Amino acid sequence: MTNLNMALETAHGVSSASELISFNKIPNEIISTILLLSMPDHKNDDLPRSVSMVCKRWKDVVFSTPFAWSNIHITDYSILPRIRRCLERSRNVPLLIEVATNVVQHSSSFLEVVRILAPHTDRWKNMTLAMDHRYASWNLWLKLTNGPGASYSQLEVIKICGTDLYVDEERRSMDILDMPRLRSVDLQCVPSAFLRPFLSPTVKTIMLAGIWASTDVICHAISHCSELASLSITGCHLPESITIPRSSTSLFTPNRDAGEYIIFPNLTNIGFGGSEWNDFFIRIKAPSLNGLTS
């Protein structure tokens, strides 16, 4: 970093003197930084591969910059060979991964995606799964990626989106996952079984939408997030046609008359949709709360 700072100061001095600097004299560290800043939203190897074709210098820089290959977006089975190249060229840097719905709709491609990504769980930093309604796919994903040796030590952000999940599957239990750095969780239209594994004490931001669960179940799951700073709940409900035993829906029900609350000392923003969440809101105590939307 010291050499990079010196190089930047030198380049700034030259530009201030209205002098031109040869491209060949710019340090690779600066070129690499320019490369990363110019492609924040690139997916897979499209942009870095194109840049590498400009000239030998750019090619050398691109192939020696692991972060240029760390943003992986899987939308189609045909691009999996390119994903393998990205995983190889990104070396050991953290990965930003998004798996889109049309991959999951075909079992063969889904299994191949899991086989490719599972060995790299210790590099996952940001994971987005946009999957279909088949609960078997969710269980299979977790089974194959949470096997012996699996580690989520770098995972900070997780987003899971499902649609039309079968309610009769929602009571299946899931193991608690060890994610020591997890800070942001976004769960949309998934069974309530997905709440507890991802809501750990380190989580600071929670967004829940369309969760098939009672307020008690959600209240209990969120109570584990002692560092929570921002909470958003919309469209979560328990259908009237579904009956869940009392023991399952009353996991945590604070007695306000006895002074019992779920205390979130760092919670500053909360938003919820629907009057049914009034009961949830009165169960929490947040001394730092400064924003409320409903």
Q: If you average the pLDDT, what whole number results?
A: 75
Distance between the termini: 46 Å
Sequence stretches where pLDDT stays below 50 over 5 or more residues: 164-171, 239-252
Structural class computed from helices and strand pairing:
alpha/beta
- Overall geometric form: globular
Taken together, the total number of domains comes to 2
Q: In percent, how helical is the residue content? A: 25-40%
Classify the oligomer: single chain
Order of helices and strands: HHHHEHEHHEHEEHEHEHEEHEE
Strand content: 15-25%
Give me the Rg, rounded: 23 Å
Count the DSSP helices.
12
Explain the layout of strands and helices.
Elements: H1 2-16, H2 28-38, H3 46-51, H4 56-63, E1 71-74, H5 80-89, E2 95-99, H6 101-104, H7 107-117, E3 124-130, H8 135-145, E4 157-161, E5 184-188, H9 195-198, E6 205-209, H10 215-222, E7 230-234, H11 246-249, E8 262-263, E9 269-272, H12 278-281, E10 284-285, E11 291-293
Parallel strand pairs: 1-2, 2-3, 3-4, 4-5, 5-6, 6-7, 7-9, 8-10, 9-11
Summarize the structure in words.
The protein has 294 residues and is of the alpha/beta class. It folds into two domains: 1-8 and 26-68, no CATH class; 69-293. The chain has twelve helices and eleven strands. Helix 10 (215-222) links the parallel strand 6 and strand 7 (230-234). Helix 7 (107-117) runs parallel beside helix 8. The two termini are 46 Å apart. Mean pLDDT is 75; it is low at 164-171 and 239-252.
